[in-house]
Amino acid sequence: MSVKYAMLGILAEKDLHGYELKSSFDEKVGEFWSLNYGQIYSTLDRLEKEDLVTHDRQVQDKRPDRKIYSITKKGRKELDEWLAAPINRVRALRDEFFIKLVFTGTDNPGPVLDLIEKQKALYLRQMNHLTHQKIALKKKAKDPAALTTELLMDAGLFHAEADIKWLTLCEAKIKATLVKK
Amino acid sequence: MIELKHASKKYQQGGREVHALRDVSLNIRKGEFLSVMGPSGSGKSTLLNLIGGLDQPTSGEIFIDGRPLHGISDDELTLIRRRRVGFIFQFFNLLPILSAVENVSLPILLEGTPFSEIRPKAVALLEQMGLGERVEHRPEQLSGGEMQRVAICRALISNPAVLLADEPTGNLDSHTSEEIFLLLKSLNEQGQTIVMVTHDPKAAAYGTRIITLKDGALSEDISIGGK
Ligand SMILES: Nc1ncnc2c1ncn2[C@@H]1O[C@H](COP(=O)(O)OP(=O)(O)O)[C@@H](O)[C@H]1O
Ligand SMILES: [Mg+2]
Fold first, then answer.
1. CA distance B166 to chain A (A)
2. 8 Å CB contact between A24 and A35
3. Considering only CA atoms, which residue is closest to atom 1 of ligand 1?
4. What's the pTM value of the predicted model, to 2 decimals?
C-alpha cells in the first residue's frame, strides 16, 4: 500500500510533525490521494508499531506536547527496497509508479532508469504470458463466453502496452534532461 | 542453429560513424520464435539483415547451421539467402505487376525452375494461408493483411531454415495484425524457426523468447513463452 511508502518518503527527507506531514503529502501526491488527519495519524501509529517510524516529544507553552516524527533505519531500508522494486499488478502502475518517481527523484537518475527498465521487462513478461494464454484459449474454446474472456485479455494487453510506451517516454525524457545538464 | 559471435556493424553516415550493432552474441535455437524488441534506431533491422546475409558485420562472425556467412563467395551467400532464409517486411515488397501466385513463385523462378513446376506448391501455400480465392489477384487488388500473407507464402516457398520478419504488421490494424501473428505462431508450432524484429510490445509478446536491443547492444533476454 503506497500511502505508507509516501509517508516514509516524506519523512526520509525531513522530520515533521503530523500537520506538516499532511501538507507535504497533499503537495506531493495529493492528486492521487486525499487523506484526512485521522488516516495520517492511524498510518503513523501503524508505522511506529512496525518500527519504521519513531517520534520525539516537543514541549510547548500552554499547549499539549507535539510529536515530531522521523524515519528509522529500518524504515529507510524498507522504503529503499520498495522504491527499487517494480510493480506486479498491471493496472496499479500509473499511480504507484508515479509515487516512486516522486521519491526516487530524477536528480540522480540511475536508480530511476534501472527501475523503469525492470518495470518494462516485467510488463513484457506479463504480456508474453497473457498472449500465450490467449492463444491457448482461442485454440480450444468454441463456447460464446470465450470471446468475452479473450476481449478482456486484449484489454489487459493494450493497457500493459500503453504502460510500456509511457515508461519508454519517461526514460527518453529523463535521459534528455540529463544531456541538457 | 543461428549463432552470432561478437557481431558489430558500423556505418559511415555523412562522415560520421554510426555504431548500429555493438558486440552482439546470440544463439538462436531451432524451433524458436524469437522476438527482437527495441526502439527505432536500436539496430533491429541491421541485426536481421546480418542474419539473413543481406549485409556483412564489420567485425564478428555469424553462422547458420554451423556454416559461416563470412569468407564465402557472393554466389554462395546468394544461395544461402535464397534457400536458407525467408524475409517478410513491413511494406510487403510484392511486385505490383505480378499476380499473387507469381509473386510467391518468384524466388524459385529466379533460380531457373520453370513456373509450371513451382505453381502447384505456390497455390497450395496460398490455400493454406486462406488465399485460395486470391491466387490470380495482383497486389493492388488485395488488402494489407492479404498482401502480407502472400509475402509470407513467398518467404516459405523455398522451405527456409528461418523466417525473418521486419516489423511485419507495422502497417496493419490491430485485428489484421493479430491474424498475421497467429499465423506466424502456428507456423512456429509446426516447427518453423522465426526471428521477428519489432518496436511493438504486443507483437513481441507472441515470441517464445524476447530479447531487447538498446543502442545496438543486447540488453535484456526474456525466455519464458508458452512453450
Ligand atoms: N545503410 C545504412 N547506412 C548508414 N546508417 C545506417 C544504415 N542502416 C542503418 N543505419 C543506422 O544504424 C542505426 C540502426 O538502424 P536500424 O538497424 O535500421 O534500426 P531499427 O531497425 O531498430 O530502427 C541507425 O542509427 C541508422 O540510422
Ligand atoms: Mg527497422
1. 19
2. no
3. B11
4. 0.81
